Amino acid sequence: MTPNLASERRRTTLKACALPVFAVSGLGAVSGSARAQVGDAARLQAAHDAAIGQFTGGAALTPGPIRLEIASLVDNGNTVPVAVACELATSGPRAVQAIALFADRNPSPEVMEAVFSPASGRAQLATRMRLVTSQTVTAIAKLAEGTCIATSAQVIVTLAACLEPEES
Question: Contact at 8 Å (CB) between 129 and 103?
Fold first, then answer.
């Protein structure tokens, strides 16, 4: 066998062996990244569910006369206008005691909580919030009788907020 032919066979063999090893190691990196994203999503969902559970005291969420006004597409997640209003009174057995806003993909899912009394007149609020990415925003009203009513809106964010700069 000539040296050039042996050298060519060796290169071909090395290429054939290296390709599957490269492909497998690349898949491992993708799988690890995908696993991390699934883990992050699960952690965020658990924090979101815990925050809602803490606010509601474990009461089931039912649809009701609560209105959430927020744009479905926002250019900048740093300052997103939002308004919430509940048609129920602030006195009586079905009085609105509190309204809270939750964002399921934010690092801190409970955005805000407002407490109402009979002196409040109406159970409504308007504020601005930060959104880290596209996500679902939920408004929940806690009633004096112990029930909770809720509504949600999907918001698409083109420029994220709430992100901390990476350390060098």
Answer: yes
Q: Name every residue whose Cβ is closer than 8 Å to that of residue 158 and which is 6 or more positions away in sequence.
A: 73, 74, 75, 76
Query: Are 118 and 91 contacting, i.e. CB atoms less than 8 angstroms apart?
Result: yes
Decide: 124 and 112 in contact? Cβ < 8 Å.
Answer: no
- As a whole number of angstroms, the distance between CA 45 and CA 39 comes to 10
Which residue matches tokens 């009174």? 89
Predicted TM-score (pTM) of this structure: 0.73
Domains of the chain, earliest start first: 43-157 (2.60.40.2470)
- pLDDT tens for 52-75 read 999 999 999 999 999 999 999 999
User: Rounded to an integer, what distance in angstroms lies between the CA atom of residue 134 and that of residue 74?
Assistant: 9
**pLDDT tens digit string along 104-128?**
999 999 999 999 999 998 999 999 9
Query: Quick count: other Cβ atoms within 10 Å of Cβ 53?
Result: 11
Query: What is the rounded CA–CA span in Å between residue 106 and residue 40?
Result: 11
Is residue 17 exposed (0-12), middle (13-18) or buried (19+ Cβ within 10 Å)?
A: exposed
